[in-house]
Write a structure and sequence with these properties.
The structure is a single chain. With 296 residues, this protein is of the alpha/beta class. It has 2 domains: 222 residues, Spore Coat Polysaccharide Biosynthesis Protein SpsA, Chain A, CATH 3.90.550; 53 residues. 42% of the residues lie in helices and 19% in strands. It has 10 helices and 9 strands. Strands 1, 2, 3, 4, 5, 6, 7, 8 and 9 form a 9-stranded mixed sheet that branches. The protein is globular and about 55 Å long. The termini are far apart.
Length: 296
């Protein structure tokens, strides 16, 4: 039997031929080489599977799987994790690129800091041609000891959720619900992880996230709903309510004392109140503009 690698990298793909080679090669070129590379093709209709098979034939670290039908993005992301074997895990995306020292730097932190459950580097946003758009500040370095303190920081700072492509402790990830079949499930998963331990941000920009017209966050809402869950035909009508409900469920599922859970519930309640206040402010501003009332 093959020796269990230190880290598993999971790459869920579907019709990914345009950017796929850049993503795969950035993983294979890592300075830390003790990994398995689990690729799950979600019944692609283009050349995605043949590209993956080409690399799998050349590198025995690649374990290639193909789904008989499109499971939707959430199930395919979860599938590559469930197929993994290592103590650390990292998701990869077909259109993003990792600098060569990504794995080495993250694993070094996790090996020396037992309370860190997720380590990620800073992000550079790139365009469809790989040119830099800007350096992005994720702001998710979360060193606090108590879960409600980590949660409070997370709720006020999270935006693009790039940290979900960092390196995680696989046993901790298994304690979560993984990715749900709804828009924003990556935020809820990161929240579940921060309830269980600290996040560490590496100060170097080692993650290149591609922004292009078919990026999942640019898709129309009806398309993104089907992207997450192939069985759906339309988007959730009340996505904000769905997110809040899932956040409360995540806190209740965590192995925390009731007092700490109460403090976490309070953080969510304050976050919801801020969202309503912000929405009310935007509504009033738009109303003033429509009525041509003088501004305050």
């Amino acid at each position: 039997m093959d020796k269990t690698p230190k880290i598993s990298i999971g790459l869920p793909v579907y019709n990914a031929e345009r950017y796929l080679r850049d993503s795969i090669e950035s993983i294979l070129d890592q300075t830390f080489g003790d990994f398995e590379f689990v690729i799950s093709d979600n019944a692609s209709t283009d050349s995605t599977y043949s590209i993956c098979a080409e690399y799998a034939a050349r590198d025995r670290r690649i374990r290639l799987h193909r789904n008989a039908r499109n499971l939707g993005a959430a199930d395919n992301f979860n599938r590559v994790f469930r197929l993994s074997r290592a103590e650390y895990f990292k998701w990869a995306a077909y259109d993003d690129v990792c600098s060569p020292h990504f794995l080495e730097r993250c694993i070094k932190v996790l090996e020396t800091e037992p309370s860190v459950v997720l380590c990620y580097p800073k992000t550079v946003l790139i365009d469809e041609n790989g040119e830099e758009i800007c350096k992005y500040d994720d702001r998710l370095h979360i060193p606090y000891g108590r879960p409600h303190e980590r949660l409070g920081h997370f709720l006020t700072k999270v935006n693009l959720a790039n940290a979900v492509f960092g390196v995680m402790r696989a046993p901790v990830l298994r304690e979560t619900k993984l990715l749900g079949k709804y828009f924003g499930a990556d935020y809820v998963l990161l929240m579940e992880l921060c309830l269980r331990g600290r996040f560490h941000e590496i100060q170097d920009h080692l993650f290149l996230r591609r922004d292009h017209e078919r990026n999942s966050r640019r898709l129309p809402r009806n398309e993104i709903a089907v992207w997450w869950d192939s069985s759906r035909k339309s988007v959730y009508k009340f996505i904000q309510s769905k997110l809040v409900m899932e956040q409360f469920i995540a806190i209740n599922r965590a192995s925390l004392g009731w007092y700490e859970k109460g403090l976490c519930f309070a953080q969510i309640s304050r976050w919801v109140a801020r969202q309503f206040k912000a929405k009310g402010g935007r509504y009033k501003a738009n109303l003033k503009q429509r009525l041509q009332l003088p501004g305050a």
